[in-house]
Amino acid sequence: MFKIVFIHVFFLMIADVFSQGKVIEGKTITSKILGKNVSYSIYLPPNYDASVGRKYPVVYLLHGYSDNETAWVQFGNVDQTADIAIANGDVTPMIIVMPNGDLDWYVNDYSGKVRWMDMFIQEFVPAIDKEYRTRASKEYRAISGLSMGGYGALVHCLNYPNVFSTCAALSAAVWTEKEIVEATKDDYKNAWWPQGSVGKARLTAHWYKNSVLDLMKKLPLDSIKKVRWYIDCGDRDFLTIGNAQLHITMVEREIDHEFRINYGYHNWQYWRTHIKDALKYISKGFDRRD
After folding, report:
1. Contact indicator for 77, 71 with CB cutoff of 8 Å
2. pTM of the predicted model as reported, rounded to 2 decimal places
3. Distance CA 251, CA 156 (A)
4. 58 and 44 Cβ atoms separated by less than 8 Å
5. Domain CATH number, residue 19
6. Count of alpha carbons within 13 Å of 233, Cβ hemisphere only?
7. Core vs surface per residue 242-255: b (16+ CB within 10 A) or e
8. Is residue 86 in a domain?
9. Residue 137 lies in a domain
10. How many domains, in total, are found in the chain?
């Protein structure tokens, strides 16, 4: 009898270790601000459907330029990474929401016609809290992303430190003034600031309003310090300079943060490898392990 019970428990343990979360794609919310539906994918942790009385922390995970809401699953395998990390106890069970940012850079454009940031804060986050069993408070809400999405994570936390507790930016699209002034015409037109045309004329009021470096330099310290900051960039990445300058700015202002430079390029191999550490950092805040 003892052996039978032991074997039964053993197999239950194995099944639990390898239990998987669920990815749902093709979901949408209706945005009055944008005047269209906004698509998103969502990862629900193992046992979400069975644990009907439990609420979960949530991470908003933003894709890069030219990708969409499916990229983090299709190319980044974030669902598999989360499953393994949760099973190992490295990461607390969490909901991961991946919205479609199109090519909008996750901010309001200079013309005021495409108000992505307003949509996200005023419509999208409340809709997710209503639809799913999230712990709907700043303490249990984080934001992360890569490249354009890393920029989006940073700029949202700088503007809304009472909405997000943690920012984890991978290969974030952070540029210095010099890089903007000297950017090629093609690089310039693909970004979120195309208002001035050449040289220093590109450094418009709209650009400064959305510049991560400028905001990190000038916003009140008590506001910035409401957020836990994690910044990770490859040493062969073309965005290394901006990320390094962000680190220097934060050191100069004595803003606590975790900064990592690892060997790697601006590619999915890097992001697949390092998203686990970002999720672990986020989870420490959710679990108060710091």
Report:
1. no
2. 0.91
3. 20
4. no
5. 3.40.50.1820
6. 24
7. bbbbbbebbeeeeb
8. yes
9. yes
10. 1
The predicted structure's pLDDT at residue 223: 98
Residue 206: inside a domain, yes or no? no
| pLDDT score of 158 | 98
Q: In which band, very low, low, confident or very high, does the pLDDT at 185 lie, cut at 50, 70 and 90?
A: confident
- CA-CA distance, 48 to 111, in Å (whole number)? 42
Residue 222 lies in a domain: yes
User: How far is Cα 91 from Cα 63, in angstroms, rounded to an integer?
Assistant: 21
Mind listing the pLDDT tens digit for each residue in 67-98? 999 999 999 999 999 999 999 999 999 999 99
**Is the pLDDT reported for residue 10 higher than 60?**
no
52-69 pLDDT, tens digit each:
999 999 999 999 999 999
Out of 11-15, 40-44, 140-144, 149-153, least confident range: 11-15
Query: Residue 94 is encoded by which pair of tokens?
Result: 């969490």
Determine the structural domain holding residue 170 and report its residue range. 2-175+211-287
| Position with higher pLDDT, 108 vs 18 | 108
The pLDDT of residue 196: 59
Sign of the dihedral defined by the CA atoms of residues 173, 178, 183, 189, in that order: positive
Spatial separation of the C-alpha atoms in residues 212 and 137, rounded to whole Å: 24
Say what the pLDDT of residue 102 is.
93
